[in-house]
Design goal:
heterodimer, A: alpha+beta, two-stranded antiparallel sheet, 16% strand, B: mainly alpha, two-stranded antiparallel ribbon, 8 helices, 10% strand, binds zinc ion
Chain lengths: 358, 182
């Protein structure tokens, strides 16, 4: 299979974290855990020669294949063979990091066909494996990633120190090498101006909050990612429990905020949802920021049963496919920024035809 | 873009704040951001604790948070004697500039510098999580390590233009690969 066929195959296949249902998925879109691992006695990517990068990649590819940890239908993408837009597409699908797609020789992604798990080879560390599931279910995700880790370990000698745990290129990841995160849709907290206080509270607990889309901590679409910061001194279970506790609270705050909006500010909320729907259903030029914010608007409407055809998954899918690399893939050609805004509007209008506002 | 605080350096840290649904971005250079949070660890801008943000960024862009942690650990650049990792040639300067280490052995090489910094970054000093399995009867990881060593040797032999030896090592590599794939 060439790269184009592999990408087509990803697009054709059902994406588990977007299209399956999960616990609390009205608010929690997805749960993800990443583990960093490195190979004993081998320089980290930052200090490795091109030959070393290739050798490491070869060894890891062999181990992944032999352990069958991502299934027989897993797809492998070698970065140097991908165009800029193909790399961007993998980034938009949350399979790789932006640091990763800037790399060239020696970097590769191996991903399970339904995109529920994948391994970045030679990102900042030799191995960054991730598991991604719909809704709020960190315990389940931990089981999945832990199994992949265990089967790789049977084939690769990981760099490990009894005091410091798994050794990583950046000392901020040493120990468990684990970054657990949950993606949350928090329009209730944003609309009721409580998000600031919530973020403040979370960062005081040593957890990180950042916007999903846009640069830095920009929060287009009211989507936030909450993750652990510390990786040393606590076990994986302790980290997951602490993070999970905070997520639970955030979910219940969000629910309260929505209820309060319905009770005290019903017309404000209806107007917000209705205008969002109006824009997505009738716009002919749609920027990605406007699209994300309007999608957020109809997502609350869907959550609250304001649309007769309840289809959270269409909204989730649009959160992904309105981004430039996906638009160009669907258009089958490169588009200028203006052309993208027009194409985006037409795609969204089309996808939302089946929604009826009640 | 210039730093909002000193208006001299380029801003490298962008902190987004949301007040009443309005977004506003503060742009700071690494120095000013570190100074702001260093002066007053409790200080927060727009709800984000800066120190937290910095640590957060160390993940992606690295440096300021890590350097700050190094400095908080009492390591003044002047009194520090430069170290070089015997395994990968990574230096104190490399560590300082990138916030990254060069190889697993670097954790020993730079142990003294790292100790205090790690304490600032994390909730503890000792790993208490998952360990590699005790299933050491499996010989596959050992073969893989052997393979990596032969590959390193091959690279060096080719550089020294010792092609005869290189050919032998290449054969051994192929043998090993077969054995691993079995
Ligand atoms: Zn400044
Ligand atoms: Zn080293």
């Amino acid at each position: 299979m060439d790269n184009k066929q592999k990408i087509d195959s990803l697009l054709k296949h059902k994406v588990s974290w977007l299209e399956d249902s999960g616990p609390d998925d009205d608010i929690a879109i997805s749960s993800r855990i990443r583990l960093a691992r490195n190979i004993k006695g081998t320089p980290f990517p930052i200090a490795a020669s091109p030959d070393q990068l290739n050798n490491t990649r070869g060894a890891i590819q062999m181990a992944v294949e032999k352990s069958n940890c991502l299934g027989a239908s897993a797809l492998c993408f070698e970065m140097e063979k991908l165009s800029r837009w193909e790399r961007e597409l993998l980034l938009e699908r949350r399979l790789v990091s932006s640091e990763f797609i800037a790399r060239d020789g020696g970097a590769a992604l191996i991903v399970k066909r339904n995109e529920s798990a994948g391994i970045m080879i030679n990102e900042e560390d030799h191995i960054r494996m991730q598991a991604l599931s719909p809704g709020f279910q960190l315990d389940e995700v931990w089981k999945i990633i832990s199994r992949i880790d265990a089967s790789l370990e049977k084939h690769l000698p990981f760099a490990y120190d009894s005091k410091l745990g798994y050794l990583t290129s950046c000392p901020t990841n040493v120990g468990t090498g684990m970054r657990a995160s949950v993606m949350l849709h928090l329009p209730g907290l944003v609309l009721s101006s409580q998000i600031n206080a919530a973020i403040q509270g979370i960062s005081k607990l040593g957890l990180a909050v950042r916007g999903i889309f846009g640069e830095g901590s920009d929060n287009q679409g009211n989507l936030f990612q909450v993750s652990n910061q510390s990786t040393l001194g606590e076990s994986e279970q302790q980290i997951i429990e602490r993070l999970g506790g905070v997520i639970k609270q955030l979910i219940s705050h969000e629910k309260n905020a929505r209820l309060t909006l319905i009770e005290k500010n019903q017309y404000f909320l209806l107007d917000h949802v209705g205008r969002s729907y109006g824009i997505l259903r009738h716009a002919y030029v749609l920027s990605s920021e406007e699209a994300l914010n309007s999608l957020s608007g109809i997502r609350i409407g869907v959550d609250m049963g304001m649309f007769s055809t309840v289809d959270l998954h269409t909204v989730n899918e649009l959160f992904l496919t309105i981004h430039p690399a996906h638009l160009q893939k669907f258009a089958g050609k490169e588009l200028s920024a203006e052309e993208r805004d027009i194409f985006r509007a037409s795609m969204v209008r089309d996808r939302l035809k089946k929604f009826k506002n009640t | 873009m210039l730093c909002d605080s000193c208006k001299k350096n380029d801003a490298t840290i962008h902190i987004q704040e949301i007040i009443n649904g309005q977004k506003k971005t503060i742009h700071l250079c690494g120095e000013c951001a570190a100074k702001k949070s260093g002066d007053n660890p409790a200080m927060e801008i727009g709800g984000f604790n800066i120190a937290e943000m910095l640590y957060n960024l160390t993940e992606k862009l690295n440096i300021p948070g890590f350097q700050q942690a190094l400095q908080q650990g009492g390591i003044a650049p002047a009194q520090e004697k430069p170290l070089v990792c015997p395994a990968c040639n990574w230096t104190t300067e490399g560590l300082r500039n990138t916030g990254r280490l060069g190889c697993p052995e670097c954790y020993n090489t730079f142990r003294d510098i790292l100790e205090a910094a790690l304490e600032n970054m994390h909730r503890g000093k000792l790993h208490v999580g998952k360990k590699p399995g005790s299933d050491s009867s499996d010989e596959s990881p050992r073969l893989m390590l052997e393979l990596m060593n032969y590959q390193k040797e091959l690279e060096e032999l080719i550089q020294r233009e010792e092609y005869e030896k290189a050919a032998k090592v290449r054969d051994m590599i192929n043998e090993l690969k077969k054995k691993i794939k079995k």
